[in-house]
Write a structure and sequence with these properties.
The chain contains 10 helices and no strands. It has 194 residues and is an all-alpha fold.
């Protein structure tokens, strides 16, 4: 038994029973070992959960980084959609991810930020747009995984909408706000240069 085996089996357990029912006792039984042997790989349950969260994010982390000259709007949309798909791929994926620090992903985040800044997005806005899109996505998936039906009860004169439609509408609003910041920054630069 190695660390990767423990994490993989813990993720399988998560998919079967949900985050609230994942325990080191249950995982040890599933692996056919005594519970204390898990502490050889993970000092605490929180350490195990952090490793599970990192492993669950691997599909998103494997996405290609943006290339210079790539359309930043399309990249921003697809990056956020990829994050959503990855969270949805695991039962309670958003809950597992919420509050974790992407320690292994910091270089990728830095390169994504550099891409946005090189494309004309002000550095401050690029950082907050990535943060806002990430938190919006986690919140959206939390709601979706809590209630896989429609995104919410609405008044009779408002049409029903799916979780995906609500996500896409919110993502478009974030992107629209970011585009306005880019235009304002470009206009400010042009005025200063004149």
């Amino acid at each position: 038994m190695n660390r990767e085996t423990v994490v993989a089996e813990a993720l399988n357990l998560l998919d079967e029973v949900g985050l609230d029912a994942v325990s080191t006792r249950r995982l040890a039984k599933r692996l056919g070992v005594e519970q204390p042997s898990l502490y050889w790989h993970f000092r605490t349950k929180n350490d195990l959960l952090a490793a599970m969260a990192a492993a669950a994010m691997e599909p998103h982390a494997a996405q290609a980084l943006p290339e210079p000259g790539e359309d930043w709007h399309e990249w921003f949309l697809e990056n956020t959609r990829s994050f959503r798909r990855t969270l949805l791929a695991r039962r309670d994926g958003a809950r597992l991810h919420a509050g974790t620090t992407p320690a292994g992903d910091l270089d990728r985040i830095r390169r994504k930020m550099e891409f946005l800044v090189a494309a004309g997005v002000p550095a401050h806005d690029a950082g907050f747009a990535m943060l806002a899109a990430g938190r919006f996505t986690v919140g959206s998936v939390l709601e979706e995984q809590a209630d896989p039906g429609v995104a919410g009860e609405m008044p009779a004169d408002v049409p029903e909408f799916s979780h995906e439609q609500a996500f896409e509408a919110g993502l478009a609003l974030i992107l629209g706000g970011l585009e306005q910041r880019v235009v304002a920054a470009a206009a400010s630069t042009n005025t200063t240069a004149s």
